[in-house]
Amino acid sequence: MRDVDFDISPGERVLLLGRSGAGKSTLIHALAGVLGGDDEGDGTGELLIDGHRPESARGEVGLVLQDPDSQVVLARVGDDVAFACENLGVARDEIWRRVPAALAEVGLDLPLNHPTSNLSGGQKQRLALAGVVAMRPRLLLLDEPTANLDPEGVTEVRDAVARTLQASGATLVVIEHRVSVWLDVVDRVIVLDPDGGLLADGSPAEVLQRNGRELAAAGVWVPGFPPALPRREPIDPGDRMPLLAASDLSVGRVEFGRRTPSVVNLQIDLDVAVGDSIAITGENGAGKSTLALTLAGLLPPAGGELSARPALADGLGTAPHRWRSRQLLTRVGMVFQDPEHQFLVADVRAELAVGPRALKLSETQVTQRVDELLDRLHLDALATANPFTLSGGEKRRLSVATVLATRPRLLVLDEPTFGQDSRTWEELVALLAELLRSGTAMLAVTHDTDFVEALAERTLRLETPIGALA
After folding, report:
1. What pTM was computed for the model?
2. Which structural domain range is residue 375 located in?
3. How do residues 221-235 score in pLDDT, each as one tens digit?
4. What backbone torsions phi and psi does residue 36 show, to the nearest 5 degrees?
């Protein structure tokens, strides 16, 4: 990000837009005073909060990061919300008045002693927001705060932010790829140009009317400019060999402080065949990610049966969780909810080569697969970058690409479109559509209704505790 000029007045509510990798998170980290010193990068120009450098605005600025895992500090929900207030020296009685109020405001209805290790990704996002709300900052900075939330949760969190702003008069800067979520809350839109400076700056109505088409072409999700959906081509019924079958399946994880799994979903019946595309939806905390990990062979079933059919097992036993990691590579590929959980090496190109090299492909084959994915997912300019330094959207594309590099027969994706602008979303969805046409099967945990419309043939909606296939 460079050559950016703007002034934000007290009480303004700003939506910060731009294509994936334009520098939105970098800017918001700079406003929060957590970007790092001169030894971590280069900076020119001036950035001030109330006339002072951001680093000196302790307690005045609250930041909710793009990755909620990075903001969970303590083992219990109540303590985690209280943490920032304690660091600011707020009186104990006042802290414990603020904590339950903040949790209620963001719609996280859990006991104060509930383990933070047992929260879903969406619940962690609400927790992070509650901790910042409890601080009562004068400047509220939000980096895609609704990205992993179910549709009801998106509305709840947006409305909670609006109530907080109304009560406190705080200034807001929020990053979100999808403009429509925040249009009723913000009064200004700033759009970063990845080549430097600003593409647009003004009221939402002015910016969208004057620059709507240009912004959509640049990757901004502008109302009235829907993404291009791939053409669906059904697989020949004779080619739909069964791959995986679940019968009366229960799934669960071992929670903090317990020795046995806590079952989070019951009675799931599901058949997956070649070319199938199934979306797994439902409320945050319903067990979607746990189900995905189980279907991918990374967790054992907590009950019922999960059986790999011969077309998937290819000579192995029928229980995927008993397969070795090298055996999973070409059979089942899992994209985790947190992209960083998949990164192993120090640069993007090497990261994409890990899987193909584990399969002992020739260097020519490895290079061909890596180059193709770098180009298709707009990562070629980042080939030598450290994966952990990428933007959230870039990390998500890389995590998907690492799985595609081994060409598994079944893809299990947890929030595959998180953090994508409309251009990278279109490219990612088009690539997945090609894989489906070639016979790859896909199970995708998602809250992205556009993704469901584009690719899903069936939807498995998880309720608590029953999963019902529609």
Report:
1. 0.83
2. 237-469
3. 898 898 888 877 778
4. 110, 170
